[in-house]
Amino acid sequence: MFQDVPAVRVDQARRDGYDFYVSAVVVVNMQLDVMGVRGFETPFPPLPHRCGTHAAMACRLNLARQVGYNPHLTTFGQIGEDVNIVFELALQHNGKFDPDPMMINMVGNEYSVYKARDSRRIKLAFFHDLYDRGLLKLPEADFRRMMRKERFRHAMILLTSVCPAAYPIITRFRFNGPRQQEISLTQAQRAFLDEIRLRFPPGQFPADSVQATAGRAAESAEAAALEQDVPLTSSSPAWAEQ
Fold this sequence. Notes:
The protein has eight helices and four strands, in the order H-E-E-E-H-H-E-H-H-H-H-H. It has helices at residues 5-15, 61-67, 83-92, 113-132, 140-160, 166-171, 187-199, 207-227, and strands at 20-28, 34-38, 57-59, 95-106. Strands 1, 2, 3 and 4 form a four-stranded mixed β-sheet that branches. The longest helix is centred in the middle third of the chain and has 21 residues, at 140-160. It is globular and about 50 Å long.
């Protein structure tokens, strides 16, 4: 995240009575070129509930304990471990949605079609679970319409998996998530990106190191959650195996 500003905004959101905080994110490629700013999506139309990028979220600890994560999913890179936090908080709790980007999200060409496939599969299963539990309060017709769109997207990814090498090429021209109209970075944020560019010239950004760092961060997050008694399932939830 950008320096100490997010911590100040998260604390202010807590003081204002919000249950969670999430900001927009700056999306960059592996050369640290700014692709845009990802805002918030409304995943359950016509419901107005919004959600954002998981890595740019913060919530009260008791909610994290209540909702939990799914770190033992048998998916590509354990993708989908955050669906509970992202979607249950959006549906059931009051969030502060900050349009100012407080985090950088790197999109790499190493992005895998198998990761995209598993991500869609988990979302399909979890949306069904939300609906069955009565947390997703959509009329049946709207729910079925939404699920048809999700299945179509999943089918397109399955079709692409016939030629996995093509998927990274496709993703170079696709902006993942809702794009905000304007890119509004502060001088400090632009200086931060410039500093990283100086350290890693174009084409020399250590992708493997980024992935390794992300892996260590995930392990640290899991260990911290266990220390704080945050519920982490011992096996994949039933809905994930459907």
